[in-house]
Amino acid sequence: MQILTLETLCSEAEIFSVAESQHPEPVLYGVTDGKAIGTYLEQKFKLYLKQQYDFVQGNSASGIDFPGLLVDVKVTSIRQPQSSCPFKSARQKIFGLGYSLIIFVYDKTDNSTNKTATLKILHTIYVSAERTGDFQMTRGIRSIVENEGNQDDLIAFMLDRNLPVDEIEVANIASEILVNPPLQGFLTISNALQWRLQYGRVIERAGKEEGIMAVYKHNL
Q1: How far apart are CA 48 and CA 168, in angstroms?
Q2: Are 10 and 215 within 8 A, CB to CB?
Q3: What gap in Å lies between CA 197 and CA 191, rounded to an integer?
Q4: Measured distance CA(4)–CA(52) in Å, rounded
């Protein structure tokens, strides 16, 4: 068995995307629940990898699919490219989620003649951990820092944007930003009990920005 690396994970995700896009699946016929489709694709991808590679499987404690590589798999429909992820701390919106993402963006079509569904994978995108912050939040913070903003400016900005955080923590984050400003993030992260991640911008910019790799793109 080979050890799974980030490089092989991405190249296998590309091969898997091509194969899956042509696979008629009876189990998914008539299914509209995005979570069920996501679970199906994630499990199938892991089973596919397990045939050749050795890797640590994620569990609910680690919260991510490939804890050894610090990568989580997300599956989303092109019709509304978003998913949820666990909220750990408000810092994730600024400094990133703490792990990278591989995002499979699909378009599902049902074939009523043979009662199967096909998940055409339109995009498979790798987003490195440091690019998983919120686009507007990181852009605003970077702009304040570049324009000689101080701790008070940063605190005011974060509180204005309803960052879910208390005053002590927001002051800690502000001083950390001055020492170590975040990189520009490319997700849209909505506040909720769980973060809601939206991927429109990532799909748009895959392959055009550092840290956002177009692993696979379906030729329409």
Answers
A1: 47
A2: yes
A3: 9
A4: 9
Which among 90, 75, 70, 84 has a CA at the least distance from the CA of 163?
A: 90
pTM for this entry: 0.94
Q: What is the pLDDT of residues 68-88, one digit of tens each?
A: 999 999 999 999 999 999 889
Q: If you search the block for the tokens 């998914």, which residue do you land on?
A: 28
Q: 3-class SS at 125? A: strand
Architecture per CATH, domain 2-82+98-133+188-217, reads as 3-Layer(aba) Sandwich (3.40)
Neighbouring C-beta atoms of residue 120, cutoff 10 Å: 17
Tell me if 34 sits within 8 A of 106, measured CB to CB: no
* Per-residue DSSP letter, 105: E
Whether the per-residue pLDDT at 14 is higher than 80: the answer is: yes
- What would the 3-class secondary structure string for 20-77 be? HCCCEEHHHCCCCCHHHHHHHHHHHHHHHHHCCEECCCCCCCCCCCECCCCEEEEEEE
3-class DSSP assignment, residue 134: strand
pLDDT at 59 over 80: no
Query: Within 13 Å, how many C-alpha atoms sit on residue 142's CB side?
Result: 13
The tokens for 178 are: 């001055």
Per-domain boundaries in the chain:
2-82+98-133+188-217, 136-179
